[in-house]
Amino acid sequence: MPSIFDALPGIEVSVDSIAGGLDQMWAGAAADGRPSPPTDDAKATQVNFVLHLGLRTDAGDAVHQFETAVRFSRSHPCRVVVLCPLKEDSEEAQMRAKVYGECSVGKEAEDTRCCEFVMLSYPRSARTYLENQVSVCLSTELPLYYWAHRFSDAARLADYRYLLTTAKRVLIDGATAPADALGYPWPRPENVRDLAFARLLPVRHTIGQFLSRYPVDALSRGLRSITLAHGSEVFAEARVLLKWVKDRIGDCGATGEACELTQPGDIAPGAFALAFAYGDKRFFTWNADLASGHAGLEADLGTGRTAMPASVALLPPESALSEAMFF
Residue 1, Cβ neighbours under 10 Å: how many? Predict the structure, then answer.
């Protein structure tokens, strides 16, 4: 089984010559006729991005997240540093580095954008030198974004306080983060974003636009309960969606309603069923299944029954990264 560092693409270089390794990589690409930066402007970056692959990341998952970062960098040019910690039983005692780059062409041939990646493999004994090495790889003039993926427990992140306190956004994914991440005392909690919430942007738009046609009093008056049933594959999304719904209905003046998250045995793995129950005949429901892409909204909030078919999908991973970072 290859390590996550070995599974990632790139050219291995010495840790103390990463900048030179990037230059040689592009020179080799140009000599071979492969796409390379036509000018220094093609390598202009907008942000620094650190992808930290936790100890629960396997080789296949590492490649998948790396490819997500590559797709993100095509829309948002950035210098990406991928951190690959070694397991404690590893016999490697030194840091290793790889460099990777690719160029993409925009709508016009002159619009070429190139991304650069630095992968760092490190044993726990080298942890004290890691932040210095990361800072060398990044531009000091650009904001830093930090994505902690599949870390084993939140307490381990305390070792990376520089990244947690310097980053403009700290990204986690409720679908893969340990349970203690939700209650972890983040140094700057206002900067933490959950990718599970970001993925739900199209869902939030659909539900919000449908309900926005009703007066706030019709939504909040006499509301007894909000129930969200979900399938086995969307627990993280259901958890944050229910909180969003509760917060938004609270903005409309509702108070004291019961909120319940359930996982019935007969619901499809990627399905949702949201329901508002009132003290009279009013109701609202939203049912959706990610597998089919179909959804439906139905309500009678005092002005007659209305039903509307809709589509349902989550944001692609690279779009969710953009949503969580910048909004």
Answer: 6
Which pTM value belongs to this model? 0.94
Question: What digits encode the pLDDT tens for the residues 151-192?
Answer: 988 888 888 999 999 999 999 999 999 988 988 999 999 999
User: What are the structural domain ranges in the chain?
Assistant: 4-187, 201-314
Residue 182: per-residue pLDDT: 83
**Residue 93: predicted pLDDT:** 85
Query: In sequence order, what DSSP letters do the residues of 102-129 get, joined into one string?
Result: EEEE-SSTT-EEEEEEEEEEE-GGGHHH
Angle at the Cα of 102 (from 97 to 108), degrees rounded to 5?
160
Considering all CA atoms of the chain, what is the largest pairwise distance in Å, rounded to the nearest integer? 75
Residue appearing with tokens 């509307």: 308
In b/e form, how buried is each residue of 308-321, taking b as 16+ CB within 10 angstroms? eebebebbebbbbb
Q: Are the C-beta atoms of 234 and 270 separated by less than 8 Å?
A: yes
Nearest by Cα to 40 from 112, 104, 105, 97: 112
Give 70-74's long-range contacts (Cβ < 8 A, gap of 24+).
70/102, 70/115, 70/117, 71/316, 71/317, 71/318, 72/318, 72/321, 72/322, 73/49, 73/115, 73/117, 74/104, 74/113, 74/115
| Strand 47-53, strand 144-149: pairing | parallel
Q: Which residue in 48, 40, 1, 3 sits closest to 22, CA to CA?
A: 40
* Token duo for residue 202: 């199209």
Q: Alpha-carbon distance 70 to 151, whole Å?
A: 21
Please check whether residue 99 is in contact with residue 8, taking contact to mean a CB–CB distance below 8 angstroms. no
